Amino acid sequence: MAYERYRAYAPASIGNVSLGFDLLGAALRPVDGSPLGDEVEVLPADSYSLQIQGPFAHKLPDNPDENILTHCYHHFINRLAERGGKVAPCAMVLYKNLPIGSGLGSSASSVVAALHGLNAYYGEPFNADEMLLMMGELEGQISGSVHYDNVAPCYLGGLVLMAGQVGNIALSLPVFDDWYWVICYSGIKVSTAEARAILPKMITMTDTLTFGRQLGVFVHALHSGNRKLAASVMQDVIAEPHRKRLLPGFDAARDYATGQGALAFGISGSGPTVFAVSEQLDRANRIRDWLAQHYVQNADGFSHVCQLDLHGSSVKKV
């Protein structure tokens, strides 16, 4: 088999989408066409190696053995060998475009791009469900538990509900293509482990019932095309009341966004990135500009107006 060079792209994502703790995720695409995701090249080589480039490369460990891409490579190769596939080494290049600990699915983007690129390079030995299982396992090595609310939308695209069933790990949901998703990364880091540690160990019966009702109503509203009903239940009763204390300026940002008519405002994943949903592009642009001026904490921060990336990760020969 003659191996060729491949380049994979995996978009940023919003985990939880406020109302769906660990059960909902959405892939993002900036409306201005700029990339918002990690890229990975896989190319022929006599032995495995890893190079890291991109604006956030300096935030990763210098030792390649500590990088999640090296874990992806060895995991993939071992799984391929187990089913009798031909194993030959390759080199990888990571273009780290997403900030670490940002709440934009940074680690998931790296994992998805790496495994999607490896699968293409070795002739696509694994199907989509097998790939998702591997992606969840590798993402779990970083976050501390296997969950799919970033890797599934990053890989599949769109808005995804985690079903957790054999053969149906994640289900694609209908979306409103006229919704604009404003995201703003403040520039500080919030680790998933830290954000989980701050949550209570038990949830009240009232919040449990509210969580279940909101998720059920939201899915129904998407399938019935009821935008107003869907927006009305996009509140986080599980994580936001506790996690917002980790996010300087959160309440002021929410007050401004809702004052501009945002349909919803919440924390993207574990934070510190926040998101707002708007039906009007001009209002979305105003929210983006305000967040960039008032929510961003340092030079690493940024803000974009996005829509949902319905395609998910992609790979091509280069």
From TrEMBL:
Its EC number is 2.7.1.39. GO terms for biological process: threonine biosynthetic process. ATP binds at P99, I100, G101, S102, G103, L104, G105, S106, S107, A108, S109. The lineage of its organism: Bacteria, Pseudomonadati, Pseudomonadota, Gammaproteobacteria, Alteromonadales. Its main location: cytoplasm. It comes from Bowmanella dokdonensis. It is an enzyme of class 2 (transferase). This is Homoserine kinase. The gene is thrB. SUPFAM superfamilies: GHMP Kinase, C-terminal domain, Ribosomal protein S5 domain 2-like.
